[in-house]
Amino acid sequence: MPAVGTIIFNEKLKAIIGELFGTHYLAVKSIYFDKPERSNWFVAWHQDLTISVDKKAGLPGYGPWTVKQNQFAVQPPLNILENNFTIRIHLDDTDEGNGA
Question: What is the pTM of this model?
Fold first, then answer.
């Protein structure tokens, strides 16, 4: 949803990202979802080890490959993973008791 880019990446968020990670970053994936209160589910602590890519390529160190919702995903080499960061934004009030 390109239209929300300027809303999400406002000056405050860009300042935080710049302070933590520098100014040379690229958003590579975003997930938007509505998690209704009565449909809550437990997600254990985990690390996402795959990245989304536009096509499958035979590159050394990349694999295994998967396809999720018609999107290629692959586990990249460690040096790529070490430079990926996740920012989670909650639009509702959240705390340790309801998912944050």
Answer: 0.65
